[in-house]
Structure formats: structure tokens, C-alpha cells
Automatic annotation (TrEMBL), chain A:
Its EC number is 3.6.3.-. Keywords: ATP-binding, Cell membrane, Hydrolase, Membrane, Nucleotide-binding, Translocase, Transport. It is an enzyme of class 3 (hydrolase). SMART domains: AAA. This is Sulfonate transport system ATP-binding protein. The keyword Cell membrane applies. InterPro entries: AAA+_ATPase (IPR003593), ABC_transporter-like_ATP-bd (IPR003439), ABC_transporter-like_CS (IPR017871), ABC_transporter_ATP-bind (IPR050166), P-loop_NTPase (IPR027417). It comes from Mesobacillus stamsii.
UniProtKB/TrEMBL annotation, chain B:
PROSITE patterns: ABC_TM1. Belongs to the binding-protein-dependent transport system permease family. It is a multi-pass membrane protein. Keywords: Cell membrane, Membrane, Transmembrane, Transmembrane helix, Transport. SUPFAM superfamilies: MetI-like (SSF161098). Gene3D superfamilies: MetI-like. GO terms for cellular component: plasma membrane. The chain crosses the membrane at residues 71-92, 104-122, 128-147, 168-185, 223-245. This is Alkanesulfonate transporter permease subunit. The lineage of its organism: Bacteria, Bacillati, Bacillota, Bacilli, Bacillales. GO terms for biological process: alkanesulfonate transmembrane transport. It is found in: Cell membrane.
Length: 252, 254
């Protein structure tokens, strides 16, 4: 894969977005390198999902710019595939047809291969309603990857899953990312998840980036490791606001 | 073996009540509890059916009625379907047409019979026009609402995954609206028979409704009851067609 160190894969410059006079994103600057794994954390309503939707081209920004490989983004971002929290599989299409959505030509083999990568080849003829929550998200992941996107956008895809399934999915996502080296942006409210997966964790608060932390730990990362715990604690303490911290101290 | 036997029983249960009723009716007719001036015995109705079939009269009337129903249903149904799709998808045609369609919908279409007779006389056109008009609105409303209620999230997903135009329509919008569209079809099949019966009874010189009205003039009670029974069977038949479509196309719901 060709890598150009000078031109960032995704470049957000003074990005502003507001809905009906409510400012959601207020001057976001961010450069994401080719093949980098970025995690965006923050409280709910901080604008992190909106940022992802802007990069996907699903919403229009008010000011600033988004450049993909130095080209200003106009309309849908065709190089990116987004994976949503609720999966959004089409209930009237079988698993295989869901994965093959939007593919052209001889799509079956490609779709079957993508399902094999997420370990669900055996369920390709089932209706989505027969799958568990984790399986649905795997199918959604296969559907995103089947297009060989250059950018993978993950909008809290593991938010609705139970703890064990989450761990499994995190491993799967890391494994696929290491294999394909797709530039990945993960939005999550789980700091541990962010630290476990990302090269860099970005914290957004009130529409602004307030923290950008490089995670230089070797993979796969041990969550019980002291360094890991320290980094997680550091980020978490920035999220929890001072008043709440006082409350914590009082309780202690 | 046992399972097949059980399945067979289960298939027969829905018909138990109609058959029982028929048997009781026959028994009461024989011992004179029901006078044949009020209601002819099922056996008499059956004989009338045989007689009318042998002359070819019955099959003629049935095929004429079926032809009118089908043609009217196709014209009205397709028009309602097309308008529902257009207004469900395109904002401009929605703005332009929906209000007018809603106003027309609120006129009971059977109230138009006198006008329709003056316009088209009592030949085929008037019956087909009335059936088409009656069928149009249920299909329209349900198609329209079906399309409007397709989850926006799924449409957004489809667009994000590169679906446009007809691909987006046939992969996401139409399947999402289909269950509502089928409800409209089922409902309009009922309206279709109702309209046809009324139209044929009031003004026609062929068809089941005409057969019943004609029989009244000669006090042929058995023929009147026969035509009513035929309508009941037709109603049941169209319901089965609607159910079959639902089972075939909405498999993913089970």
C-alpha cells in the first residue's frame, strides 16, 4: 500500500457544525494518517457521533473543511464505509444478500468471503432476525468490509452488546484492522475499549477536542497491565467533570 | 403418521362450522321448521346450481362477474399503487396530489351510481369504473403510508452503501412498504366484491348480481340464495389469495 507521510488521509480543518443555533462541533482540527486507528471518546451529546457522520458525508458541515487525501469532501464519502450502533441490516434480505448490498457483478463469492472473515459463513442463508446482537454486528462489519473501503467508520458498534461479546468483537476488529490496515475511526463511550484498540485517543468536550493521547502500547494489549490502567484512568478523569470528582471524594 | 393426521384435522377445523350449519339447515328444511318460502333447502339450492350450470347460464354469469372484478381491480389497484408510490417518494407530487385524493376518498363511491349510470349507461364501463374507484383508495392509502413509514435509518444506510434510484427503491423502500401495501390489497379485495354486488344488483343485464335480481322477479328463492353463496365463496377465495401473497412475500417476518 502506498503511504504518503506528508498528506494526511483525513484532514479536518476548523470544522463547525450546528443544528438550529445549537453548536455541536466548534472548530475541530484533526489529521488522521493512512492506516491509523483513532478512537473518539466523550460524553453522550458531545458531538462525537456527529463528527463521524460528517466524515461519512451523511451530514453537511457549516464551516471549515474536510479533506480526504487533499481533496475536499463533497457529498457522500464513497471511500468510507460506516457501521452503525444498531446494525441496520435489512430484515427482508438474507444474511448473504445483506452483505452483498450495493456490490456489482459476481457479488456472491465476495460476500461469502467477507462472511468467512467474520466467522459467520454458516449463517448466510438465515434471516437477520434469527441472529443474536453480536452476530448482527458481525454481519454489519462484513457488509462494511466487503466494499474494501479505505476508511472504516465505527459509530459505537459495540454499544448494545454484552461484555463478553464486546471483547470478542474488539478482537475481531483489531485483527481485521491489522490485516487490512484500513484507516479506522471508532466512536465509543467506553474509554477502555478506546485505549485497547486505538493508536490515538481523542477526547471531545462541548464540541472541541480537549485531549489527544497517543497510545504506544504493543498489541494485543493487556487491560490488566499497569500502564494500560494508568492511561485509562488519566483519560477518564478528564471526562468526568470536577464537580462529579468532588462527589466521588465525598463518597470515598 | 400421527403428525400428518393432526395436520389434516387442523385443516378441516375451519370448515366444521359452515358444514354443521349446512346440515342443520337441511334438517330443519326437511321437517318444516324453516319454510321454503323463507329459505329454500340447501339441496334445492344445489339442484338450482346443477340446472343453471347445465344450461351454461351460471358459468356465463360467474365469468362475467369475475371479469369485471378483475379488470376493475387491476385498473384501480395499479392506479392507487402508482399514485401511492409517487406521492410517498416525491415531495412535489405529494404536495400537488395528496389533498385532492383525500377529498375524493371521502366521497362514498357508491353514491356516484346515479351519476355513473348517466355517464356510462348500464353496460360494462360503469361497473368497471365503480370497482376501480372503490379499489383505488385503500391501495393508495396503504402504499403511501407504507412508503412514508419505511425507516429513515435504513434508507440512510442504503445511500451510505452506494444504493441510488431504482436500486435503493427495490432493495429498501419497496420491501419496507410491502407489508402495508398487502394490507391495502386485502382490504381492497373486500371493497371490490362489495362494489360489484351493489353495481350489478342495481343496474346490469348479466353477472351474479343480475342473476339474483332477475330471480327475485320470478320468486326463484333458490337462485337468490345460490348467488349469495357464490359471493361468500368468492370472498373467501380472494382472502386466500391475499393470505398466500403475504406468506410468500413476507417470509422474513416469521
Amino acid at each position: 500500500m502506498k503511504k504518503d507521510a506528508r498528506v494526511p488521509h483525513i484532514h479536518l480543518n476548523q470544522l463547525k457544525k450546528s443544528f438550529d443555533h445549537t453548536v455541536v462541533l466548534d472548530g475541530i482540527n484533526l489529521k488522521v494518517n493512512q492506516g491509523e486507528f483513532i478512537a473518539i471518546v466523550g460524553k453522550s451529546g458531545c458531538g462525537k457521533s456527529t463528527l463521524l457522520r460528517l466524515i461519512a458525508g451523511l451530514e453537511h458541515y457549516n464551516e471549515g473543511s474536510i479533506s480526504i487525501k487533499d481533496k475536499e469532501l463533497a457529498g457522500l464519502n464513497t471511500q468510507a464505509r460506516i457501521m452503525f450502533q444498531d446494525g441496520r441490516l435489512l430484515p427482508w434480505k438474507r444474511v448473504l444478500e445483506n452483505v452483498g448490498l450495493g456490490l456489482k457483478g459476481d457479488w456472491r463469492q465476495t460476500a461469502i468471503a467477507a462472511l468467512r472473515d467474520v466467522g459467520l459463513e454458516g449463517r448466510m442463508h438465515d434471516w437477520p432476525s434469527k441472529l443474536s446482537g453480536g452476530q448482527k454486528q458481525r454481519v454489519a462489519l462484513a457488509r462494511a468490509l466487503v466494499h474494501k473501503p479505505e476508511i472504516l467508520l465505527l459509530d459505537e458498534p459495540l454499544g448494545a452488546l454484552d461484555a463478553l461479546t464486546r471483547l470478542e468483537m474488539q478482537e475481531l476488529i483489531e485483527c481485521i484492522w491489522e490485516k487490512e490496515k484500513i484507516t479506522t475511526i471508532l466512536v465509543t463511550h467506553d474509554v477502555e475499549e478506546a485505549v485497547a484498540l486505538a493508536d490515538r485517543v481523542i477526547l471531545i468536550e462541548d464540541g472541541k477536542i480537549v485531549l489527544s493521547k497517543n497510545i504506544n502500547l504493543s498489541r494485543p494489549r493487556q487491560k490488566t497491565q499497569q500502564v494500560f490502567v494508568n492511561i485509562s484512568e488519566e483519560i477518564l478523569s478528564r471526562i468526568v467533570d470536577p464537580n462529579e470528582q468532588n462527589l466521588r471524594l465525598i463518597i470515598k | 403418521m400421527q403428525a400428518r393426521f393432526k395436520a389434516g384435522i387442523r385443516r378441516m377445523i375451519p370448515w366444521a362450522l359452515p358444514v354443521l350449519l349446512l346440515v342443520l339447515w337441511q334438517l330443519f328444511s326437511w321437517n318444516g321448521v324453516i319454510s321454503d318460502r323463507i329459505l329454500p333447502a340447501p339441496s334445492d339450492v344445489f339442484t338450482a346450481a346443477i340446472e343453471l350450470t347445465s344450461t351454461g347460464e351460471l358459468t356465463d354469469h360467474i365469468s362475467i362477474s369475475l371479469g369485471r372484478a378483475t379488470l376493475g381491480f387491476l385498473i384501480g389497484g395499479l392506479l392507487g399503487f402508482f399514485l401511492g408510490i409517487m406521492n410517498g417518494i416525491f415531495r412535489f407530487s405529494d404536495l400537488l396530489l395528496d389533498t385532492s385524493i383525500q377529498m375524493l376518498r371521502n366521497i362514498p363511491h357508491l353514491a356516484l351510481i346515479p351519476l355513473v349510470i348517466l355517464w356510462f349507461g348500464i353496460d360494462e364501463t360503469s361497473k368497471i369504473f365503480l370497482v376501480a374507484l372503490g379499489v383505488l383508495f385503500p391501495v393508495y392509502i396503504n402504499t403511501y403510508h407504507g412508503i412514508k413509514n419505511v425507516e429513515g435509518d435504513l434508507i440512510e444506510m442504503g445511500k451510505a452503501y452506494g444504493l441510488r434510484g431504482s436500486k435503493l427503491f427495490f432493495s429498501v423502500i419497496f420491501p419496507g412498504a410491502l407489508s402495508s401495501i398487502l394490507v391495502g390489497i386485502r382490504f381492497s379485495l373486500g371493497v371490490m366484491w362489495l362494489t360489484l354486488i351493489v353495481a350489478e344488483t342495481i343496474s346490469a343485464h348479466s353477472g351474479i348480481g343480475y342473476m339474483a335480481m332477475n330471480a327475485r322477479e320470478f320468486m326463484q328463492m333458490d337462485v337468490i340464495v345460490l348467488s349469495i353463496l357464490i359471493y361468500a365463496l368468492f370472498g373467501k377465495f380472494s382472502d386466500m389469495v391475499a393470505k398466500y401473497m403475504e406468506e410468500k412475500w413476507l417470509k422474513w417476518k416469521t
